[in-house]
Design brief:
Elements (H helix, E strand, L loop, with lengths): L11 H11 L3 E6 L2 E6 L4 H18 L5 E6 L16 E5 L23 H45 L2 H18 L15 H4 L13 H13 L5 H14 L1 H13 L3
Length: 262
């Protein structure tokens, strides 16, 4: 980094605006060849706030030195920056002609500074935050519109299923679904028709010990489902109410479940 000569900016908000337009979050501040601060980063918003703090500090100190903000496209968080690191852009600035705390810009030795630069920086950051909030609100509004549209679609489907015409056709629909999804018995091989050895001597076979009772089946199903379905109790309660409130949908659902091969 060579010593800065020409001054492009004399107020912090202009430096910050120029830095923001570059779109490169990694930066360093030099005074001549002396490295004042380095900030390798991947977060543009964080870098804007960090640079704003350094600019505010330099402005409040009334430094008359010529500083340079260098920006880097290939420097990421964790890298090191020095005066020999190649940069992709640089902005020279000086906030006061004399370092006496009077905040006079070059050519304004006896004129008061019209507005505190840190106030302008605060306004710029506030405007940026408002824009980010507006973008987030637009995203939330789009998601809510999509949810409302889906709810309206489901409500329309529910009204169609509860219409008298669909109610009259339900038995035929259920029968058709059952016939299409019913599992056909596999053909029996002649050797499979031979009675098991336990029945050959007139002794009937029994597998009562291996059969599950209805209560055991229900308990097993709940145990398997509750790990994958956190709101299982609420869903089971809704299912129990469907025969009264959504009879048609309930019949179709049961017919589909009976026909599934799982």
């Amino acid at each position: 980094m060579t010593p800065a000569r020409a001054v492009q900016f004399v107020d912090p908000e202009s430096v910050l605006a120029a830095f923001t337009s570059q779109g490169m979050p990694s930066f360093a501040i030099f005074c001549g060849k002396q490295l004042f601060v380095q900030w390798p980063s991947n977060d543009m918003e964080e870098s804007i706030e960090k640079l704003a703090g350094y600019l505010r500090m330099l402005h409040q100190q009334g430094s008359a030195g010529i500083y340079t903000v260098a920006v880097y496209a290939n420097i990421k968080e964790g890298d090191l920056i020095d005066d020999k690191t190649p940069y992709n852009g640089a902005m020279n600035f000086r906030f006061a002609e004399y370092g006496d705390g009077s905040f006079r810009t070059p050519g304004q030795r006896n004129l008061p500074y019209p507005e505190r630069a840190d106030d302008k920086i605060d306004k710029l950051l506030e405007a940026m935050n408002k824009r980010l909030d507006a973008i987030e609100q637009e995203r939330i509004d789009r998601e809510q519109e999509e949810a409302d549209r889906m709810a309206g679609t489901m409500d329309a489907v529910g009204r169609i299923l509860e219409s008298p015409l669909v109610a009259a056709l339900t038995p035929a629909i259920v029968g058709l679904i059952s016939s299409l999804t019913a599992k056909k018995p596999a053909p029996v091989h002649p050797m499979q028709q031979v009675p098991p050895a336990s029945q050959l001597g007139g002794i009937p076979a029994t597998n009562v010990g291996n059969a599950l009772s209805d209560e055991q089946k229900i308990a097993t199903a709940i145990e398997k489902l509750k790990g994958d379905v956190p709101d299982l109790p609420d869903l089971l309660l809704k299912l129990s109410r469907m025969p009264e409130k959504k009879a048609i949908m309930f019949k179709v659902l049961i017919a589909q479940l009976r026909g599934m091969n799982v």
